[in-house]
Amino acid sequence: xxxxxxxxxxxxxxxxxxxxxxxxxxxxxxxxxxxxxxxxxxxxxxxxxxxxxxxxxxxxxxxxxxxxxxxxxxxxxxxxxxxxxxxxxxxxxxxxxxxxxxxxxxxxxxxxxxxxxxxxxxxxxxxxxxxxxxxxxxxxxxxxxxxxxxxxxxxxxxxxxxxxxxxxxxxxxxxxxxxxxxxxxxxxxxxxxxxxxxxxxxxx
Length: 204
Hints:
The chain is mainly alpha-helical. The chain has helices at residues 2-54, 60-74, 81-92, 115-120, 131-148, 153-161, 165-192.
């Protein structure tokens, strides 16, 4: 009889241990999905802010299209939509995010990929005139620069432009655009709290 009880207890312990493992796996999956949900919420929030900032430089329809690309093309990458948006603004924000932009050095598209860099990512130079392909190549290019920068995203963004005085000027411009994006990102929270937009420098 004691042997029977012992066997039953052993089986019960096995079942309990299995249940704990299942609960632990379930909890981990729930946490992962919750974290993913939070990130997706943040990405959507960023995309809305990006669309507003882009709309100051191009028509609303195109602004929303480019903001959607910033959202979609950074999914599954090390980057957030804001990272891709600030590069677009630094590259072609001053000329209306023109998809046909070609720099004096030959860089093409909204994200200004050099033909040889576009080719290294599997694209032809003329394909950089297509916003979606240009965004795709830009994410791949930034990933390459992130490797070169040993994981330092700020340095990677500077390397996206190059090196030297031109890259320094680019970095100053990129940071200015990032501040604009961040102000737009926090504006709804400030308005909700009843604080004036001027508190975050909206007069500048």
